[in-house]
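Session log. Operator J.P. requested a structure for one protein chain; no other inputs attached. Running the standard single-chain path with token output.
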Amino acid sequence: MNRDRWAAVDRYVTGLLVPPDPVLDAVLAANAAAGLPAHDVSPAQGRLLELLARMCGARRILEVGTLGGYSAIWLARALPAGGRLVTLELDPRYADVARANLARAGLATVAEVRVGPALETLPALAGGEGPFDLVFIDADKESAAEHLGWALELTRPGGLIVADNVVRDGALADPSSGDGRVRGVRALHERLAAEPGVSATTIQTVGAKGYDGFTLALVGG
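Structure written below.
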């Protein structure tokens, strides 16, 4: 098995289960034209996020790490009428691209992009804008455990936390790694293991985005 085979399976699954979407295609094209890194979730992963949001009946969603808004659109589309998504982005230029993409998708009044370091914008949310039904963490991995701490505070009992890019080509299992991103996702797992009332697991993934994985955490009621 190799990445070519993984990508072929992704293409097969996407071709059957994730219909072509001109809006999302335009988002990826706009991101590329603006020079944003190609770190968006794959279409199959985007559909997974949408399904998770629908399955937990999410009305309020928080995303940590916007990039160009691709995953935010998947999540926001899962919201019922009156639902709201808040997404946090460090880079003002990325945020501008995301706002334009969200407007193009007809979601400008549903999704709000806030700019600044997440560890500065998250405390403001804790001041009364939560709780959220679903929190998606996809920002810098060095701060993954800190982002998780705020997510735990901001997620309602029975809500879901999803963290992306946590396996790092298998480096997650390496306790001697000097990579700050690996140390960050290991710290996230250790924090979850020590957290009473939270049930969590990590699913390894392969596909067009290579070898990585998601962590899913259900906040206890």
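Operator note: The two ends are 41 Å apart (CA to CA).
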